């Protein structure tokens, strides 16, 4: 089984699913107390107390305030228990400077005025406000919001929306208190409180009523909550058993497949190994690609040149100078490599390593070089694929792929109805199923044999005595050393002199005089022509997702 490819894919999906906020200060907001004192002129004087605990050094906290349409925020100040704090404001984002060290716990008080906070109607005056919205990236620990009328009230009504639903109560003096408790990040919560209109003589009354609207909203929210509770119970009674049963089936299938593949591999490796060079059933580049998980194309190209020299297709004239002896090839990737080296870089008949260096140092040639090496790699993979070393199991993979989609559906349902541990388990099972569906192609017994023989040969060559090397035929030496050069350059470099000293320098079918230099040139060419790009972006406070386009959030820096 392609275990490493599957693991890489699962890790890639995991990284996509887990949110990462780079370079952010690590902190927790343990407690939030917000008090809105309403005034007779319809303004609201707001006091917010935030308790932060930091796990990193920090410079301060942030508070974004996005006012509702038709309102404004004025006179924003900040302080802690010792002093007033410096505030920097830009486009609704307030940076409050209060530095400290990791492990510090601080309490910061914010004060500001909302102008136009209260709207008055025929049957009541309402304060309807979003102190934060879904743009907030921080979790609030213990949050309480208190709305105090200008004078004691007897006809107060209160209703919370979103995370504030079913959190309100009214005190004896008519104060509305919303006890939200823990509030996750990226959530909306609108606060609505209605008082007697005569408490706000400085606010001009509008036509119409507001209490009936609040009553309708309350009924609708209660009906939605009841329906949610019913559906949540259905999700628990049906979804959880489905996750457990299907998850056990999937894990059992994966374990069974893994054990079967492991037994097959062990059966091939059960015998006692004695050094020999395996038969040449594939080209050296294809063998390298199939047998080496750390296969590097640049090293493979050097090995491919040695393989073409062994076949008599390329002749070496000097340490850096090569001549084309025969254009006919056994595999398409050999034709691609000859075209790159002799036709694109060389003069059609010869090329030198110096020409490779000059060509790849010119940025105008990078695209063509990379395209040719990519085509060469593709054709090398095609040769491996043609040998059918991997079992297909198309039906099984499709079935597990469908199972992955089922787990994704169960994760969505679990998330909607607040079953977060089961949602996390469903996501993990979906990733496992998807990885299995994409990557499950167990190696055939023949494939295991080929891998075992060539890998064992490479390992044995690390300590192979010179006399045992000299007993090999010329073809065996060439295939073995080309494979070693492409798979383990360090061992190849150590063995280069011992393995090539006995070979006549003028033997056109022999080794490259300096294969290590050749590999270094292609590695350098690959590095030079590689390019990377990065992009970054950011945003600022804008339109909120709360009532009236308002909202806000909290953070630290």
From TrEMBL:
Q: Which residues form the Predicted membrane protein YciQ-like C-terminal domain?
A: 296-492
Q: Signal peptide position in this chain?
A: 1-24
Q: Where is the composition biased (Gly residues)?
A: 536-557
Membrane spanning stretches:
238-259, 398-417, 423-443
Q: Does the keyword NADP apply?
A: no
Domain DUF2207: where?
28-195
> Could you tell me what this protein is called?
Putative membrane protein
Cite the source lineage: Bacteria, Bacillati, Bacillota, Bacilli, Bacillales
